[in-house]
Structure formats: C-alpha cells, structure tokens
Amino acid sequence: MRKAGGYLTVYLSLVLALLLSFVLVIVEGARMHTVRMEAECIADIGTNSVLAEFHRELLEQYDLLFVDMSYGTSKAAAENSSEHLRSYMQKNCGLSMAWENHLFARRDWLALSVDKAVVKEYSIASDYGGNVMKRQALEYMKDSSVEGMLAELAERAAQVKKLELDTQDIEQEREGIQSRIDAIKLPVHLNEEGQEETVTLDNPADKVEASRGSFTLGTVLGKGTYISGTVIRPENYISHRERKNGTGIAPGFRQPSGITEDLLFDCYLFEKFGFYGNELEKSLLKYQIEYIIAGKGSDMENLDYVVKRLLLWREAANVAYIFTDTGKCTEAELLASGLTAVLFVPELAEPVKYAILFAWAYMESVSDVKCLLNGGKVPLLKTAADWKTGIADLAGFPDSISDKASGGRGLNYKDYLRVMLFLEEDNKKTMGSMDVMEMDIRMTPGNGHFRMDACFDSFVADISISSAFGYHYELKRRYGYD
Fold it and tell me: What band does 98 get if pLDDT is binned at 50, 70 and 90?
C-alpha cells in the first residue's frame, strides 16, 4: 500500500498565508486612506456647520454674512465657535444611526476622535476701520450701476467745495457790515419828556438778524410736524467704545478704496438705512443717515445738525447769487437809500444795502430748507427764476415764509444728504453704520448683547483628528463666505 505525500497541504498553507497577508495589507491600506478622507470630510462638515450659524438678523436686515461668536450671550469669544466646531466634528466621527444595526457596523472600522478643533486667525467685521464689513456690503451691491450717479454726484461735491459752502465765513462778512453801520452816529431828537433820544434806523434786516440766535428746527419744519425724540448713549456702540480686533485677515484681502466703491457703499447705506422723510419702522433711531453724518446722541440733535449745515450751504450759495443779481441789488439800494434819507445820514446807505442783501439771502435760505424738508427741490446754484422770496417779506419774517413745498427743479433733501454723506470720511461712515446695525439688531429677540466686533466672516480652522488604529492627521485651512 502506497502512502500519500503531504506537499499539497504545505503548498496551500504557504499560499493561503501569502494571500491573507496581501488581503490584510489591502484592508489596512484602505483603512488608512479612508481615515484620511473621512478626517477631511469631517473637518469640512464641521467648519461649514460653523459658517451655517451666520447671524440671521444681520442677513435679513443688512444682507451681511457673519458668525456671531457670542451666540446671543454676553460673552463674545472665539472659544465659543471652537467648541461649536469640535461638537459638530465629533458628532460626525461615530457611526450614523442608519448604520448602527448594519451587519458590517458591529465595530467602528475607523474609530476616529477629535483631538483639537480651534477657530483662529479670524477676521472681524470692524477690522481695518470697518472695511471687512464694507467689503461684504460692496459685494451685495456689485450688480448695481452708479456710473451716471457718480459723475453727477462728483460734480455736485465739486461745486460744494468750489463755492466753499462748508467753509465760507458768511458770519464774519455780515458782522463786518454791521460794524460799519454801528460806527456811524445816528441823529438824536428830544422826546415828549424833553430827553434826548437816538432816532432808530428801522432797518428790516435787523429783525431777520435777530432771529438767527433763536433758530430752531421748528423754524423750518412748520407747525405740528412730528420729530422723533429717540435718545441713545453713543458710548454703548462700536464707534465710541473699545472694540475687539480680529487675529488675521484672509490672504488676498483688498481694502475697498476709490471713489466708485465709496459711492456704492453710500448707495448701500441709503438702501438699508432710514432718514428724515423716509423713516424705517423697525429702527431705533429714525434719522439714521443723519446720525452717520452728525454722530450725535439723539434724533433731534442729528436732524438739527444736518438742517443747520443745509442752512449754511444754502446761505453761502444764496449770498453768492444775490450779489450778482442786478435787480435785487437795485431793490436793496432803493430801500436803504429811503431809510437813510429820512435820517439825513447818506453814508449809511451802502452798508445798509449790504445788510439787507445778507438778510434777504438768509431769509431765502430758510425758505429753501423749509422747502426741502417738506419734499420740494432746490437747485444748488440758483437763477432769478428759482428765487422765491421778495424784499417785502423781510418785515414779516419768519411768518412770511410759506410752509408748503414749491416743488421746482434741482435737488431734494435726499440728494443733499447724498452729497453730505459723500463728503464724509470713510472711517466715519463705516463705523457709524455699524453703530446703527448694533442699535437695530439689539431690538430683536435674543440679541440684546449683539456686537459687530464679535462677528467674523472668515477663519482658520486648526484641526487634529486621530484614529484608534494609530493614524493621526493635522489639518489647517481657511474657511469663509466667498
């Protein structure tokens, strides 16, 4: 009887050992690559989940995408967002509920865990003087065309500077004329009691000049006009308080600059913010554009500042015009000659004439501002056809000025505000606008502690993920709203 050899069994054993080693190498290689891919997916899901927590009110009211690090609390810190990032990532490290009872899910083949998840190098809305916020506003306005408006507004701003409407010292010129009048002695006569008494000049310009010191919003707004009485504490808002700074800006970030981008931002402000005659129902301050220009602590103060500046502009422009109008200069000269002839003081005629012209220009300016606040239009530079008041109205000032808007050609109140805003410094506009954002968002539920310097739009995620099978991955990437 022949005995069977065992060489086949030995051969199979050797082959099976090699095949098993090969299979195990493939399985472990697949695990290693899967761990790496899973780690990257978990990191992307976690960071995108953090970005998905953008502030809803900020988006709804201002179309800005920022994550609020305070999450509705009084503590604004990057650690809060880091904790959110870690939580989202950790939830994606384990098996999903759909796989818990699966045949191949009796053990976790990856066994991942998050060792580190830190939000760092984040850019805050108020960084670079608010230009991080401004960049997003410009992105929102990128489809808007301002070419025609740019040329027109630039021309108006150039006229304001050329005419020195903001800087011309009309008061000094007027006081110089008054000094000449005061230096001339008026005649005296004996009154009924036999005492000497100086004869009065009865110059109608004196009544107008006396009203300057008592000028109020009521002078130009008309009787019964409602003015918002809202008062704020400026120190509670970002432009006045000490603010937080970001720890890094996105590579390639370009600060907005140039006249076109400035005008686009102004257009954004007029689209999102209210002003006199166009108040927003949900706003704290009703005259928000006026606040950005004036920066005062109440609606009344801000409107008063803008109105007085408007009056200054109109007076400078009207003085420049009236001295070139031969007809009006003749009227003033005749009136001055008549007043001084009665007193037999002919040397008073010339300074009184100029005093009348200054008073007339001021009266016209009050009429202009009244017209603007009531919805009418006033050209920056007038012609004879645009002049509304007559020399006879001086005697009845201010009651002789109509409260009704006369329409007409030129610029309306919003147009004048545009010019004022256009002339303001960029930093003042960006910080003032963020003040307004804070005011209004704090009025919404759960946002009482909202701060613009707690909001970021991009960040670097520093992430470390480990596997129980000995693999470890470090990830460091920047994420943001692009």
Answer: very low
pLDDT of 233 > 50? The answer is yes
Phi first, then psi: give them for residue 156, nearest 5 degrees.
-65, -45
Distance CA(239)–CA(427), nearest Å, equals: 10
Amino acid at residue number 126: S
CB 456 within 8 A of CB 67: yes
Amino acid at 455: C
SS (H, E, C) 207-269: HHHHHHHHCCHHHHHCCCCCCCCCECCHHHCCCCCCCCCCCCCCCCCCCCCCHHHHHHHHHHH
The whole-number pLDDT of residue 149 equals 77
Q: Which alpha helices (DSSP H) does 95-185 contain, by range?
A: 127-140, 147-162, 170-182
SS3 content of the chain, % helix, strand, coil (to 5): 55, 10, 35
Cβ 122 vs Cβ 346: under 8 Å: no
pLDDT band (50, 70, 90) for residue 405:
low
Q: Examine the pLDDT at 228 and tell me if it is beyond 60.
A: yes
- Taking the model in full, what pTM does it have? 0.85
For 286, residues 6+ apart whose C-beta sits below 8 A from its C-beta are 228, 230, 274, 276, 279, 280, 299
**DSSP character for 472?**
E
In 3D space, the residue among 310, 294, 312, 311 whose CA is nearest the CA of residue 302 turns out to be 294
